[in-house]
Amino acid sequence: MDCDRSVYPHRLMPRQTPLFRFRRRSPFILLTLLILWSFCIGWALSQAAQGQLPPTPPAIGTVDPTPPNYRVGEQLYVEHCGSCHVALPPAVMPTTTWRDLLLDEQHYGTQIEVMMSPQIHIVWDYLQIFSRPTDDGEETPYRLEQSRYFNALHPDVEIDRPVTVQSCTACHPQAPQFDFRTLTDKY
């Protein structure tokens, strides 16, 4: 019986094998790959143990990491405010508090000299970025214990009242160096 090639082309053509055939792999190849993988992992771990991997970045001492374009403002702030007392992280007080403190010559009852331009603008840029906003209708806090941010940053910590900037070192021994992440053994 004759077939029409256009209707049944597969009947007249030889059987073709698929392009990718499943073949059974040798256990030798699998064992070789496993040994090679183990060697690579072992080598990487030995390099890490010898300290030949890239060094870890330095620890962040402040509350927030400071990008390079704000480091001058941070440095000016720490030099200016930290010369009389512990310079607080901007995150513990709202932006309105920092604005008022920068412009006030009567700093908590002490006559101080307000920073001159352009330093005050550089410090203000830094404080504005790293402080928090106040809610509508919220009073501007001027004491740490009045600041909801200070309380939020110290959850479940029993703090002796009144809190002063000098009492920060009781829990943060490196606070004079603007490192508030290092804590005493108590915490």
Describe the protein's architecture and organization.
The chain has helices spanning 27-49, 71-81, 95-103, 119-130, 148-153; strands at residues 106-107, 110-111. With 187 residues, it is mostly helical. It has a domain at 68-177. The chain has a two-stranded antiparallel ribbon. Strand 1 and strand 2 (110-111) form a beta hairpin. Helix 2 (71-81) crosses helix 4 and helix 3 runs antiparallel to helix 4. It is elongated, with a radius of gyration of 33 Å. The termini are far apart. 14% of the residues are buried.
Shape: elongated
Order of helices and strands: HHHEEHH
Oligomeric state of this protein: single chain
Structural class: mainly alpha
- Indicate the proportion of strand residues: under 5%
Q: Please mark out the parts with pLDDT under 50 across 5 or more consecutive residues, or reply none.
A: none
Percent of residues in helical segments? Answer: 25-40%
Query: What's the count of strands?
Result: 2
Number of helices: 5
Give the spatial strand order of the biggest sheet.
1-2
- Please compute the radius of gyration using only Cα atoms: 33 Å
Largest sheet: 2 strands, antiparallel
- In round numbers, the mean pLDDT is 82
State the distance separating the first and last CA atoms.
95 Å
